[in-house]
Amino acid sequence: MTDIPNVTLANGIEMPALGLGMSPMGDGEAEAIVAAALQAGYRLIDTAENYRNEAGVGRGIRASGVDRDEMFVTTKFNERWHGEAEAQQAFANSAERLGLDRIDLLLIHWPNPRKDRYVEAWRGLLRLLEEGKVRAIGVSNFKPAHLDRLLGETGVAPHVNQIELDPTHSRPEERAYHAAHGIVTESWSPIGAGGDLLANRTIVDLAGRRSKTPAQIVLRWHVQLGLVPIPKTSKPERLAENKDVFDFELDQGEMDELASIDGGDVGVTDADRFGH
Ligand code: NDP
Fold first, then answer.
1. Which of 56, 195, 223, 228 would suit a FRET pair with 255, their CA atoms being 20 to 30 Å apart?
2. Which atom of ligand 1 is nearest to the CA of 110?
3. Alpha carbon of 44 to ligand 1 centroid (Å)
4. Is the pLDDT of residue 1 over 70?
5. Which residues line ligand 1 (CB under 6 A)?
6. What residue spans of 65-185 are helical by DSSP H?
7. Any idea which residues carry the catalytic annotation?
8. CATH 3.20.20.100 correct for 6-259
9. What CA–CA distance (Å, rounded) separates 181 from 243?
10. How far is residue 43's CA from residue 6's CA, in Å, rounded to a whole number?
11. 1, 3, 4: which is closest to 222 by C-alpha?
């Protein structure tokens, strides 16, 4: 078992290169899998106000016996907290539900451009960072146009943008924008959210040749591109499988094979239309 390495955010904070996704899961399930994951060597846990399991995540953290300072806890807040003071309140609410006094990474969950308050929410996050209540700040589902506004109006880029990304939706424009601005790309639904990605012929063939599982091939692809995947499982027996992707490397030919299944942005959730 190889440890999960870290990536370094633009402010120098170290973030694990792979984490555990927490949606959908109730509090009880969340508590059990978070404790098991931390004991199995996971350090990054990705929850959200919207998942309604922050209390369970907090209980799992305490049950794990792992030192809090070794963990990297991420949560996200909803549209109703888009505002400078509101974002501070969103932090306080999540911290209380989690039972933590500090959150490692706090994200604006969706830009909700129709509300047009994400820049104010970003200012709230900047204040929380200054006050040391969070170690890093970021956004989720922001398009380059939304990021342009954050940069233009505050001069500060998010440390992380968490977006929908897998080999069939490889999001090259977003990745290039992030790379140009020092933003780490975190991949949600990295193994296809229980759909048919893991049955894709190219992935299954490659997995067979390498004696890996399809999930491991896909997760290794993310890691090799410098992306931080957060695969969700509520099955303890899958925890080791999903994290053991740091002891092998895909060669250029294999990366090219995976590039060939990119279907563009078809089916990607449109953050100008959807949000909460
Ligand atoms: P994932 O791509 O992580 O897929 C999860 C699904 O794959 C579940 O059905 C899980 O089932 C199954 N699975 C897990 N491991 C394996 C395996 N080794 N082999 C086969 N199947 C497996 O999708 P998610 O949509 O859950 O995305 C991951 C995380 O991203 C979420 O949990 C959440 O934290 C975050 N997210 C963020 C969003 C945002 O707007 N920012 C939106 C959506 C997700 P089982 O549990 O039974 O193992």
1. 195
2. 40
3. 14
4. no
5. 21-23, 46, 109, 140-141, 162, 188-194, 198, 213, 215, 230-235, 238, 241-242
6. 84-98, 118-130, 144-154, 172-180
7. 51
8. yes
9. 28
10. 10
11. 4
Whose Cα sits closest to atom 34 in ligand 1?
A: 21
What whole-number distance in Å separates Cα of residue 82 and Cα of residue 79?
Answer: 5
| Structure-token pair, residue 47 | 């929850």
What is the residue with the minimal CA distance to atom 26 of ligand 1? 232
Residue with tokens 């893991």: 198
- Give the residue carrying structure tokens 């509101």: 86
Q: Give the distance (Å) from ligand 1 centre to CA of residue 92.
A: 27
Listed residue (42, 59, 47) closest to 22, CA to CA:
47
Q: State how far the Cα of 207 lies from the Cα of 131, in Å rounded to an integer.
A: 46
Q: From atom 7 of ligand 1, which residue's Cα is the shortest distance away? A: 194
pTM over 0.90: yes
Tens of pLDDT, residues 218-231: 999 999 999 999 99
The pLDDT confidence band at residue 2, using thresholds 50, 70 and 90, is confident
Predicted confidence (pLDDT) per residue in 153-212, tens digit: 999 999 999 999 999 999 999 999 999 999 999 999 999 999 999 999 999 999 999 999
Q: Find the 129 Cα to ligand 1 centroid distance in Å.
A: 29
CA of 54 from ligand 1 middle (Å) equals: 17
Burial (CB count <10 Å: 0-12, 13-18, 19+), residue 252: exposed
Residue 101: C-alpha distances to residues 68, 89, 92, 188, 228 (Å): 11, 13, 9, 26, 25
Decide: 179 and 207 in contact? Cβ < 8 Å. Answer: no
Domain spans, the chain: 6-259
- Looking at residue 251, its amino acid is D
pLDDT digits (tens, 9 = 90+) for 15-45: 999 999 999 999 999 999 999 999 999 999 9
